[in-house]
Specification:
Layout: H1 6-21, E1 25-30, H2 33-48, E2 53-58, H3 63-71, E3 76-80, H4 87-95, E4 100-104, E5 117-118, H5 133-154, H6 166-169, H7 175-184, H8 196-206, E6 210-216, H9 226-232, H10 245-253, H11 275-291, H12 296-300, E7 303-309, H13 321-332, H14 337-344, H15 350-376, E8 379-380, E9 385-388, H16 398-405, E10 417-422, E11 427-433, H17 436-440, H18 445-455, E12 459-462, E13 466-472, H19 476-491
Parallel strand pairs: 1-2, 1-3, 3-4, 4-5, 9-10
Antiparallel strand pairs: 6-7, 8-9, 10-11, 11-13, 12-13
Helix pairs in contact: 1-5, 2-5, 2-7, 2-13, 2-14, 5-7, 7-8, 7-13, 9-10, 13-14, 13-15, 14-15, 15-16, 18-19
The structure holds cytidine-5'-monophosphate (3 copies) and zinc ion.
The site of one cytidine-5'-monophosphate has 15 residues, from β12 and β13.
Domain DHH-CID: 218-303
Keywords: Exonuclease, Hydrolase, Nuclease
Domain DHHA1: 391-488
């Protein structure tokens, strides 16, 4: 595991001190799982440090959004999970005296610096795979706890700080949300989190809010009834089980286990099984995969590290980092960031119920979107493949759909996928997704999206493995030609 990173922590301390000097703070964050968990971490840290604040969410931090922020009368603005890529715009407002920016982000920074800028990429840490926006916010939260503590000591304890238990006073309990953010940004590779993320996991385990262990790497271990867990798990396709309702049922019924509840005959969920039962199901699954000729490397990826939020009730989305992050995307990507934030901040009634309703809708949209793309197919260029969803897939989820569709019939995993969806009457949203193996060969989609979009009067950025852009309607073909050329150079 990576050791502590002193430069990162020093920068966090500098940012935390600046926040402690503010009378009040405007907290601005991005609308996805990582952005929501970033905001929830920052909000709790500010509250515990007794710094008054207000929270706003933006789909995208463009010039208009920054101008709106500048128009408020906040002197200090904390940006989480975005801000680095928009430093040119933000810097202009800073120069004009509109506000002082404090940034906790992990996106590729624009060509400009500012004093209170916390980003792993400034310190040689990979912002796509080692630290997320929520991770950067967590590092800031840890520094804030230290600073607030020190101001208590300096004032002889006059500042009211809600210290709670020792684990809470140092903000380590917020590690659970940081892990949800990292998993939501798909920072886990080879079945687990790496680098700075791993340190956060360790702190969460010490604080008693996280448990980790090798487990079946399927989505839905907490909430899906066993047959659905197996039927819907298609990352590793097991013939006769994946996408096969009757097959999945038969497989489970053939095991010598009581997998249906005695009371009502309902199927149990993975999270309800005893360890011995889990082992039996898992080894039968592996045997079946082997006998059906699933390649060994694929079979290995059936097992991974599970990140369990052990203070949350068994059988809920909140207990599994992956399910939690999808629940959050289901709120924030549908203009209900307030609901997701409520869930992160502990609202286990109204907000959670609303989030679950939104999740059902999100799932339906994802599955319809994936079906659509797979049915209609993508256009293959030499170096990229692409599709245009028009208004048939929401622009806020077209990237998730593109990523999940990769590997389906006709959709290659050996070149990046570029997806277009209508944004409004003038603009088209572009989302691009690659694989970690393409990144190892030189792919950097953040450069591709940035350069290709600016060549057609748009703008974009993001990470090497996942990036996005906005371009004017009608410039899509030109955009693809540019992207095709840049990807060709990167992979040559
Ligand atoms: O803006 P932000 O960094 O939070 O979002 C990153 C996006 O990239 C997420 O939607 C995440 O699902 C996506 N991603 C991906 N595949 C990866 C890494 C990230 O689809 N390997
Ligand atoms: O929606 P989100 O981007 O957070 O999904 C993260 C991952 O969780 C997806 O790439 C997919 O593997 C899995 N997922 C799933 N079924 C869903 C939602 C997400 O398998 N309904
Ligand atoms: O929206 P999507 O999920 O495709 O975004 C993928 C990544 O690209 C995210 O990290 C997002 O913040 C980034 N992005 C960006 N500029 C845009 C659109 C997306 O930096 N105009
Ligand atoms: Zn992020």
């Amino acid at each position: 595991m990576a050791g502590p990173i002193p430069e990162l922590e020093e920068r966090a301390t500098r940012c935390a001190r600046r926040l402690c000097e503010a009378d009040r703070v405007l907290l601005a964050s991005h609308i996805d799982a990582d952005g929501l968990t970033s905001a929830a971490i920052a909000a709790q840290a500010l509250e515990r440090a007794a710094i008054p604040f207000e929270t706003v969410f933006e789909k995208q931090l463009d010039a208009d959004a920054v101008a709106d922020i500048a128009a408020t009368d906040y002197d200090t603005v904390l940006f989480t999970d975005f801000g680095s890529g928009q430093l040119d715009i933000i810097g202009d407002h800073e120069d004009a005296g509109d506000f002082t920016p404090v940034i906790a982000d992990h996106h590729q920074p624009a060509d400009r610096e500012t004093e209170y800028h916390l980003n792993p990429l400034l310190f040689g840490i990979d912002g796509a795979s080692e630290l997320s926006g929520a991770g950067a916010s967590y590092v800031l939260a840890r520094a804030l706890a230290e600073e607030a503590d020190q101001s208590v000591a300096a004032d002889g304890g006059a500042v009211a700080v809600d210290s709670g238990t020792p684990a809470r006073a140092d903000n380590r309990d917020l590690a659970a949300l940081a892990v949800v953010g990292a998993v939501g940004d798909m920072q886990a590779s080879g079945g687990e989190l790496h680098g700075a993320n791993e340190r956060i996991v360790a702190e969460g385990v010490e604080a008693g809010v996280l448990e980790t262990g090798k487990d079946l790497a399927l989505y839905g271990k907490q909430t899906r009834p066993l047959p659905k867990l197996l039927e819907y798990a298609t990352d590793v396709r097991i013939p006769g089980i994946s996408n096969d309702e009757a097959g999945a049922l038969r497989f489970l019924e053939d095991l010598d286990l009581e997998l249906q509840r005695e009371e009502d005959g309902e199927w149990r969920r993975w999270a309800d099984l005893e360890n011995e039962e889990k082992r039996t199901v898992a080894s039968a699954l592996v045997r079946r995969a082997v006998s059906r000729g699933v390649p060994a490397t694929k079979i290995e990826s059936l097992v991974g590290t599970a990140y369990v939020l052990c203070e949350e009730p068994v059988g809920t989305e909140l207990r599994d980092a992956s399910e939690f992050s999808t629940l959050l995307n289901a709120t924030a990507r549908y203009e209900r960031a307030d609901v997701g934030l409520g869930v992160c901040l502990g609202d286990r009634e109204g907000a959670l119920e609303q989030a679950r309703t939104l999740l059902r809708n999100h799932r339906r949209n994802l599955s319809e979107g994936i079906d659509l793309v797979t049915r209609e197919g993508v256009t293959h260029e030499d170096n990229v493949q692409w599709f245009h969803a028009g208004d048939r897939i929401r622009e806020t989820i077209v990237g998730i759909v593109a990523g999940m569709a990769m590997g389906n019939e006709g959709i290659s995993r050996s070149k990046p996928i570029i997806a277009f969806a209508q944004k409004n009457d003038e603009e088209v949203k572009v989302s691009a997704r690659g694989t970690h193996s393409l990144v190892r060969k030189g792919l950097d989609l953040s450069v591709v999206m940035g350069e290709a979009s600016r060549a057609v009067d748009g703008d974009g950025g993001g990470h090497d493995v996942a990036a996005g852009a906005t371009v004017p309607i009608g410039r899509e073909e030109e955009f693809i030609e540019m992207a095709e050329e840049i990807v060709g150079e990167q992979l040559s």
